[in-house]
Amino acid sequence: MGRLLVRLGVLVVGLLAMIVAGTAAQAASSVEKYPTKKQSARQAFTAEERQEIDDFVAGNVLFTLYHEAGHAMVSEFELPVLGREEDAVDSLAALMMIPEEPDEQQDAWIIAAADWFAMVYELDDSEMEYADYAGEHGLDLQRYYQIICLIYGSDPEGFADLAEYAELPPERAERCPDELAQVARSWVSLLEPHEGKAKKPIVVSYGDPGEYGDAADVLRESGVMEVVAEELSTTFAFPNQIRMVAEQCGEENAYWDPDARTITLCYELVDGARLLIVDDIRAR
């Protein structure tokens, strides 16, 4: 169990170090060239703000890809899931991104993935409807706190400030190390029998980005999809050919299609992440 757990915790190490420079150059330049709807004038960003933008985009793309890969594993390996599958693969994605040892860059990425849900919640001032409670996903703030809890549980002392900033209730914070351990035990026990190499490497492709050329540039130049595909292909013995595709979807989304055996990452989601953090920085 230990070997695979370490493997899960370092999936974003190694080749992903090569992502940072490409993502930074593309994301920063595209942000300044294409301001948001809220502000038409070009605005310069500090080095710290550029890094924040880069981390937010990279972290959310990584989390989304690992989340959808979780759905693929449940489907392809016929894994049992107790409770909502969406909650389970959220926890898996977090587990795969939380570093085994303290790492400032990886910490920034997983925290950015959590922040997405808090920021979306803050922007949505509409009243809740029955359909919101009946959805297959948890509520945005629930997803935020679940990820924050797992991050905190990995290093309570190191992430004490994060727990305080997030206003994680003390009674929940106390249980977070055990929650992380339970998530790790559960997923490792399910995935250990499927450790190995995929029958065929996961294939990556890019569709026509249309108006989302900047999002496509970020993905291509960073190589994030290729890195994730290679790491998954050499860690898990997928029995069938899996495809990972970036394309226009008409909405901010990502999904696993079990019939086509395809993980789709929508350009709109990548662009939406960029706009979300840029608007947040400009509103401060």
From TrEMBL:
Q: What organism, scientifically named, is this protein from?
A: Caenispirillum bisanense
Q: Which InterPro entries match?
A: DUF4344
Keyword tags: Signal
Q: Per the record's keyword annotation, is Signal included, yes or no?
A: yes
Lineage, uppermost ranks: Bacteria, Pseudomonadati, Pseudomonadota, Alphaproteobacteria, Rhodospirillales
Cleaved signal peptide residues: 1-27
Name-wise, this protein is Metallopeptidase
